[in-house]
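Help needed: design a sequence for this.
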């Protein structure tokens, strides 16, 4: 495949001393024949993995009109839409569950995911194969190899969730392995598990921020817990989630229930102890591009002078907002969402169109009012997710225990505005049946990560669809995913669970087969 061959040459990336920020500055296009001879080259290539492949598919806001590729799957639920979907048709076809009729039009999205993930995988494969041959301290070599294994696993995890069966390449690409066939998803998951376990055994037991924004034992353990959830292996998910909940990380507290809430801190502040893994952004080296503009609708162009385009590229419909009871802190204005905004410099006001709440979680004050450059890091994993994972995994394996209720209660307590104590919330949770408790964990994930692109992953791994009441705030029920109607009125089919393999990739590689329901040419 041409897209895998691309990775035979990679840019040289250097580690800057500026706040330990991973600088992405290509210095050459040497092929792998001349590459990987020095420790500096090895470090540069592992650094490349931090800013390419799957992490960028989740965190990169490179377009004013469509969010990161990971945002598109949320459209499948019908609870989210892109206000520019007339142009960004992959969003419309995803929301209407008609991707099968438009394989050609959405192949660019498939191509982007496939190309970039395999590009990163080949860099990781080169690192894993070459680093042991380079003269350097054993501890440094082991750490770099473990980081490369993490990123190989993370990219394969993203690929297998997106496409199902995918080629499994574990050696640097050569002319002899340009046309691999798809491997069974189970085999891919086995390799992901192996890589992550090996990474966990080597990587430092420190927070991501304290480790210079490099992958840690807890990042890898969080990813592995996520993997086991997708496999339905709750016993192992519990084991690895426990590693994270017992780590030095801690939940961000509320200083008040308004501008200094935990959720506003998560929105505006980097290096919080809650953050397990993030994409680092900086004004001078690698900024967050269009992220701040996603907080508003197009009318905001008249309110700010720093950006020329505003679009709500991933916005909730009003029915989705009913996932919150009216007393939940997260649904209050300027927590996760907002409906009115006045520019403090000009007095100009933005009002959300009817049925289109703005996404306050993306708001970046300095970028929008002053600099025009987004600097807020993007959070991939937070400790609250580990708490919810651990609580659910305990319930799935052992039933509703005091420990499980305690971790779920901590997440709910932070969002509580009624003055209930954590102990009171915990006592209420202990009265739930096993299934009701598990569903409470699912619902809390929807409420806690509404704008972090996790809802579709949860639908697929549980094979349940959350039916959010259109009339009763806070009421959610769960039905079988296949055969359910999404919030746009479309019915889920088995073929909706994955994206198609891009048509150009099928043409390049005769050994590839298309996913069921999608065109082959």
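Sure. Designed sequence:
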């Amino acid at each position: 495949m041409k897209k895998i061959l691309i990775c035979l040459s990679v840019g040289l990336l250097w580690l800057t001393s500026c706040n330990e920020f991973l600088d992405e500055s290509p210095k050459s296009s040497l092929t792998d024949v001349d590459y990987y001879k020095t420790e500096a080259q090895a470090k540069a290539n592992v650094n490349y993995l931090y800013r390419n492949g799957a992490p960028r598919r989740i965190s990169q806001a490179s377009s004013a009109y469509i969010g990161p590729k990971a945002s598109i799957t949320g459209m499948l639920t019908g609870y989210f839409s892109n206000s520019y979907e007339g142009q960004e048709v992959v969003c419309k076809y995803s929301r209407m569950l008609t991707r099968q009729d438009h394989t050609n039009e959405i192949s660019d999205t498939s191509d982007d995911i496939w190309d970039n993930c395999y590009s990163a995988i080949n860099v990781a494969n080169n690192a894993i194969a070459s680093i042991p041959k380079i003269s350097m301290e054993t501890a440094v070599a082991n750490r770099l190899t473990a980081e490369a294994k993490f990123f190989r696993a993370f990219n394969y995890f993203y690929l297998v969730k997106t496409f199902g069966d995918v080629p499994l390449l574990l050696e640097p690409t050569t002319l002899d392995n340009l046309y691999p066939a798809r491997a069974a998803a189970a085999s891919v998951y086995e390799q992901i598990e192996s890589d992550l376990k090996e990474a966990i055994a080597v990587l430092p037991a420190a927070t991501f921020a304290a480790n210079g924004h490099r992958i840690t034992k807890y990042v890898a353990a969080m990813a592995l817990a996520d993997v086991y959830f997708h496999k339905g292996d709750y016993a192992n998910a519990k084991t690895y989630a426990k590693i994270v909940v017992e780590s030095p990380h801690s939940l961000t507290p509320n200083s008040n229930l308004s501008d200094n809430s935990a959720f506003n801190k998560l929105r505006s502040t980097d290096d919080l102890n809650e953050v397990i893994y993030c994409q680092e952004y900086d004004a001078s080296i690698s900024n967050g591009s269009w992220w701040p503009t996603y907080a508003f609708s197009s009318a905001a162009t008249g309110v700010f002078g720093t950006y020329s385009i505003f679009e709500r590229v991933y916005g909730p419909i009003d029915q989705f907002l009913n996932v919150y009871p009216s007393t939940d802190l997260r649904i209050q204005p300027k927590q996760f969402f907002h409906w009115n905004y006045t520019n403090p410099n000009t007095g100009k006001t933005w009002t959300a169109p009817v049925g289109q709440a703005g996404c306050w979680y993306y708001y970046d004050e300095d970028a929008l009012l002053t600099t025009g450059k987004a600097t807020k890091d993007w959070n991939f994993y937070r400790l609250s997710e580990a708490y919810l994972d651990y609580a659910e995994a305990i319930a799935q394996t052992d039933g509703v225990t005091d420990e499980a209720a305690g971790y779920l209660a901590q997440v709910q307590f932070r969002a509580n505005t009624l003055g209930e104590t954590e102990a009171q919330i915990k006592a209420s949770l202990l009265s739930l049946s096993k299934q009701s408790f598990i569903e409470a964990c699912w619902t809390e994930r929807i409420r806690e990560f509404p704008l972090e692109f996790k809802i579709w992953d949860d639908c697929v791994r549980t094979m349940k669809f959350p039916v959010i009441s259109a009339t009763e705030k806070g009421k959610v029920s769960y039905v079988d995913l296949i055969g359910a109607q999404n919030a746009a009125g479309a019915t889920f089919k088995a073929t909706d669970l994955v994206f198609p393999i891009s048509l150009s990739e099928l043409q390049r590689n005769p050994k590839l087969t298309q996913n069921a329901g999608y065109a082959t040419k």
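Confidence is low (pLDDT under 50) at residues 1-20, 23-33.
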